[in-house]
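Handout, tutorial session.
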Amino acid sequence: MSVVDRPDSSGPAVATGAPSAPTTREATTPAPDTAAPLTSAERAELERLRAELAALRAAPPPPPPPSRRPRGPIRWASVASAVLLVLGLLLVPVSVLAVWTHNQISDTDRFVATMGPVLDDPAVQTAVAGRVTQEVFTQVDVQQLANQAVDALAAQGLPAPIADRLHGLTGPLADGTRSFVQDKVQELVSSPAFVAAGQQALTVTHQQLAAVLAGQSSAITVQGGDAVLDLYPFVEAAKQRLVASGFELAAKIPPIHPTIALFPASTLIRAQTLYHLLDVTATWLPWLTLAFLIGGALLARNRRRATLVIGLAVMGTMLALAAALLVVRGIVVGAVPEQSSAAAASAYDIIVRFVRAALRTLFVVGLVVALAAWVTGPSSAAVRIRGTLARGVASLRRGAVARRLAEGPVGPWVHDHLGLVRTALVVLAALVVVLLDRPSGRTILVVVLVLLVLLGIVQFLDQPRPAEHRPAPPVADPQSPVPDGTGPTATGDGHDYTGNVRKGS
């Protein structure tokens, strides 16, 4: 029977039981033949694709993207290092200004050394002479007095033409008198006696001020709610002067203590409190700053890099303070009249010269620290520099010099303790810088140069013992048991390490 196709039937075709003849589609579609052989290029491409598929199947699946970056464990030493370094670097400029201010307020010699040269500066002396002359002629009008004198002569019968001519000369007379007074005042303020008197006045005034702030002055005391000045020293001085002048009755004046109210007592108490706070700050703050910086460097993960950062940061801080001083200088000079600007600029430069000296010193210290950290680092330039220096020192230690150093006690000892000797020299140089009284930048450079020379000498003396004099390493006993207790070590060829044939081989 044949297969009955029902195109409109929704079910499958029903077979009658016997094989049917092929349909029209089956008759027209050719049966698959044997596949044609692949070319070499196709086979290579097939192999490549199979290898890629196998690699993809063998590779583990990629992890899902994390919602946020995983954090590793916190290294608290690094956190503490960062905190200490930030605090130390912030306290560096505060320490500089605190020490300078304390020196100016508490140290009379330092104050006079700072302010004394102001009186000796030509620009300041010219400004002082001009101001004194101006005040003199403000109180004494020379031209008006001359005109009054001419009028008085005219009233006494001086002819009018002569009086008119004399009136015309009063102006030049006043100008000439002003020039004369200006020259005399200039000679006065430029004289060594005037400068010495001014420095003496500065000394006495500062001593009294420092004693008041320290609470050691008996002249200024607190009574009630006011700070009062005890006039007893002035009364005694006046009494002695009067007796010396012949007024003998002044000797009968009894010791008295009249007072004059100066200002509220709270102002004095506040000033004394600030003075004591400044004294403590200037004494301990520099050491605290140094401790912060050293502690931060020691706790850092990379100590050399932390040291380099400290040096560069100190240099940058000193440059920032120097720029701030220049800005303040411009403000100060711009706040005074034009005729006094030269004197104000000179006085400002003299007053802050010790601050600038401290900035230069600390800048040099930061430069030395940064260079030391860089030279000891792993950069190619630093390695070349160290290699060049080492080869230069080694070239001086060749031949007989090297043999003598190796045979003597110095060379081997330095070789065995090289790190300790270098560390001791660096610590000694640091102590010299710290213990010097106000070292300058030039002093720092001299200390560094001496340190480099000493390190070069140590490198020159570094010479190990010759090979024939070195102690020989211990030789193991062939018959001694090995750690497992089996006797002489056996090899796989039937011999022990002594070359003897083992029994039973």
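The second record follows below. Compare its token runs with those of the first.
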Amino acid sequence: MKFIEAIKNRWKHFLNKLGEENKKTFGDAPLDCCSLNQKQNH
């Protein structure tokens, strides 16, 4: 059972990192096809 727990914990860690990267890239707003293709002036 420890093997399954290790896989489960690694999967959760992976999903959390993926979520954080998505938040950095796209922000907290819902994704909208019209806003994704627009460049913003910084």
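Points raised in discussion: The radius of gyration is 16 Å.
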